[in-house]
Amino acid sequence: MVDFALTSEQTSLRDMARKFARTEMAPHAAECDRAGRFPEEIYRKAWELGLMNLNVPTEFGGTGLSLFDQCLIVEELSHACAGMTTSIIANCLALEPILLGGTEEQKHRILDPFCAEYHLASFCLTEPSGGSDAGSLKTRARRDGDHYVLDGEKCFITNAPFASLYTVFATGDPSLRHKGISAFVVPRDTEGVLPGKEEEKMGHRASATSTVRFEGAKVPVENRLGAEGEGFSIAMRTLDQTRTPIGALATGIAQAALDHAADYSKRRQTFGKPISEHQAIQIKLADMAQAVHAARLLTWQAAWTIDHGDRGSLESAIAKCFSSDAAMRVADEAIQVFGGYGYMKEYPVEKLLRDAKLAQIYEGSNEIQRIVIARELLQRYA
Amino acid sequence: MEIAVLVKPVPDAETRLRPDPAGKGLDPEGVKWVLAGYDESAVEQALLLKESAPGTTVRAISYGPAVRADEVLRAAIALGCDRATSVEAPAGVADDPLVTAAALHLALSRFPASLVLCGKQTGDHESGLVGPAVAELLAVPEYGVAVNVRLDAGGAEMTLQQSVEGGLLRLRAKLPALVALQQAWNDPRTAKLPNILKSRKAPIDRVPAADVAAAVAARLPLATRRLAFRLPPPRTGAKMIEYKTPEEAAQKLVRILREKAKVFP
Amino acid sequence: MTGAVVWLERTSTGVAGASREAVGVARSIAGGGPVVGLLVGAGGPSAAERIPVDRLLLVDAPGLADASSAQLAALLAAAAAASGADSMVLAGTARGRDVVGRLAVRWGAAAATNVTDLVAGGSGELHVTRPVFGGRASETLELPGPRRILAPRPHAFAEPPPASAAPPSEALVLPDGFSALPGRGMEGFEPTVGSKGPELGEASIVVSGGRGLRTPESFHLVEELAESLGAAVGASRAVTDAGWRPSSYQVGQTGRAVSPQLYIAVGISGAIQHIVGMVSSRVIVAINSDAQAPIFKVADYGIVGDLFPILPALTAEIRRQRGLTGSAPG
Questions:
Q1: Which of B65, C97, C136, C320 has the CA that lies 20 to 30 A from B152?
Q2: Within a domain: residue C198?
Q3: Which residues of A touch C297 (CB under 8 A)?
């Protein structure tokens, strides 16, 4: 049975996230964007309110939400600032490998203390030599008795300069490609773990991104997630879980762009009337609204599919790809509705375009998503 | 000790207010009912007292149509209140602050508290009458526009401040009492996500509508009757003052304030 | 309706302006009956100055200058019994409204606060209009008789002209059981640090500053303008969040709701959060560098421009005008 109505519980979760987004995040979004400031006080508050470790079950100290409910929250947060949202949900990405690949002992040992206090974690998969081609990663994990020694460099790692925990993917033997990769949980205070300096980014400037270098970092065997060689599978299953919230993040950006444009169109006058009364603008707004609605529904459907036990590769790839493309289009049109003002940093819409761009790139570029979609699709015509 | 906090469902601040078809009240269609403003400050005060005095329990009490009352009671529980009482409004009963006070008085007679907290007014009718009227019905003193309530002497006394012109009055008072709180002085907390989830399943005690109807019957002949509910004419936008120098802008504005607006002293 | 009792609330400088306004309201609803003033606290009839009441009831007791609302409710009920009045009018101050709530129960009367307009019907009905939802709507209420209590909103009604002579006065006999009523329990008074102006919620003029002032140091421009007008100082949430001024300054949905005669918004863009806290002000002036700022949608008068030269110019002009007002003939 199809039912698009939110439960009263979901409504209250969404309202809480909306309130947090509007009162805590939105007032600082422009300033953090301009200065490239990482507003840790906001992230700390997000953690206090249970907005940070959304996917971690309550028994390990997280909030334990369904993917659908996570998406409701992520859209609201992103409406205020996509960059802050990226930093707030980075823990979900970084901790998912532990949820998928960890033993009960590992989950309790690692997650219980982590979730009990404000901590950030980073997901370390991408390397300078290639992001989408994860099978060819070069960071080495050499077994040495009761520990592994990690050497190599990861890049574009969200929250890395501020994280206290890294989930790291490294290979025992590059010639084995995918099958050589293992996953590790590496505390920041491990000797030889060296986060780099923050990158200057086009958008998501309230989020921090840097490299992380591993120089002979010793990681105990009990911090390996799953079996040796299981790392690639863990990484891919993680991304299956976290791809859909990126659709929600993009939907939030698109909704914000539409809201700004519609509001401005009613206030801005040309030729003696508000521009909202000109059909040229109405057509833009109507197209933007369609994109927003479609993005949200595709995201909801993907989340629903995964919550009902399906892997949802096709649905989540469609949700992420469509919503981020839609966010780009809608933000672009919002700038056009604002005209010259839209191009000015004093107005909020140019930021949306810069923020939307990343949603087309990270957590699997939209090209990769399309490959996944085509593969899933063509299988059905065997 | 027992603390009761009176909370009222009011339309969310962003609700677009609309008169009902008869023009005699707010059209409830599509309105989201929330715990807001003054009541948030009252709940926050109750929770601060609870945290300062172990063994204290806080009960939120709300009067109104059960669906609306339940929403704000769950919000109060999510914030940290221990118990909740929904005082069900009889269908069609007069919407009058003194009737509300009589209904809340009934609830407080069933769930007694040595300290009753409320907002100094509600964000809808803004009468400010419910708190003092409940206090009179309970025969306890009331303290309005209050901030910074602290319990003393094991909960037998309290100190508080009243926000008045030019500063704060410091008072010491005995319990039982009712305190009506000033808005927005204590930075009300936000409910945590896990607590919101738990609050959806929390039990709510009920005072049935039939009992309420009997309790308010004596007050009904004195209830005010709403004849009209209307929106102010929309503001048409500011008249812009044209000027060449700041001095000219200042002179023009002062002249307008004096001659047109007649608000300049 | 015949006869009305008015509580003449006192401030450090005499009978409150809002109570004088209440006397005018009482006259309109007294149906030709006497308007009786009740004055509580130290001092004889002279304390009532030349307020145009027909009769004055006095409770000359210094200890009751800070009477609790329970005590005041008992005294007002006694005054009504002594004068035979069936209406009461109390200034809609915070204290006045507390008394009204108790009195409506004790005296068995219909009550309405925050009244901004009234229609005294010929056949004994009394209709009043009052703003609701922070001024975003208004309602008209009918108060059934026979007993009614009104609290007019401060500044909503004109003060009646003073009487030519002091009214006759007599002492009010304290009602039975009065001594058992709890007092107010006052211990002391702490003036607000740095605030010389009137209280935000009660002021007839409010000047508020927002993020457009750019730095906490420039907020004094707002305070100087407020001082020149005898106004209270408010702020937007951006200012209080940034810690430029304490949160007690905040006007808006999560701060204080104000409805003065004049509201001047300086460097405030006008988020809905702020608008709901000030939109019911009688006259709104906005000064902002952004002509598209939403504040101009709700303002009556707007100045678009750089705040930094305009504010001092405005303060200087007001000071100059007020100086001239004092010395100019007529």
A1: C97
A2: no
A3: 267
